[in-house]
Design goal:
It contains 3 helices and 5 strands. It is α+β, with helices and mostly antiparallel strands and 146 residues long. The chain has a domain of 92 residues: Sufe protein. Chain: A. β2 and β3 form a beta hairpin. It is elongated.
Length: 146
């Protein structure tokens, strides 16, 4: 088996670089900003949680490596009554998207049953939701009655 080296012309190389960048940024698109139901439909809301204030951190992968956020959430009757997210971005791009997420998350989750939260993209930030959901799972485990 022989190996052949390939050379790309400048336009082809530029196009390849553009597609690579597009793939990296696709997860941060501004389109479709909303919380969504899971693929199986509405979540099971039969679990019961202890009222109170909870905090947890969550991590996610970005093109710049592992990033994290801290989520503080208040529950009353299994309903989210308050939320705050503390960004932990390691660079200016990550910080920008986390700040966008922080600015929009309250409208997506406050007033909803904690088991119905399926945040996918908020204010143009789609990757930060991974860290939010990881923290949310830790909060649910801490708050679960039983």
């Amino acid at each position: 088996m022989t190996s052949r080296a390939r050379s790309f012309s400048a336009p082809a190389s530029a196009a390849a670089a553009s597609f690579a960048l597009l793939g990296t940024l696709a997860g941060c698109s501004a389109a479709g900003d909303a919380a969504a139901e899971g693929p199986a439909g509405p979540a099971d809301t039969s679990a019961e949680y202890t009222d109170g204030e909870y905090s947890a951190s969550g991590a996610y992968q970005s093109p710049n490596g592992t990033e994290s956020v801290i989520v503080q959430l208040t529950l009353e009757g299994d309903i989210v009554t308050a939320v705050a997210v503390t960004p932990g971005g390691s660079n200016s791009t990550t910080q920008y998207y986390q700040d966008q997420f922080v600015g929009g998350i309250e409208a997506e989750v406050v007033g909803k049953d904690i088991d119905e939260l399926q945040v996918t993209r908020v204010a143009g930030s789609s990757l930060t939701s991974g860290g939010f959901l990881e923290a949310l799972e830790a909060i649910k485990a801490d708050a679960l009655v039983g």
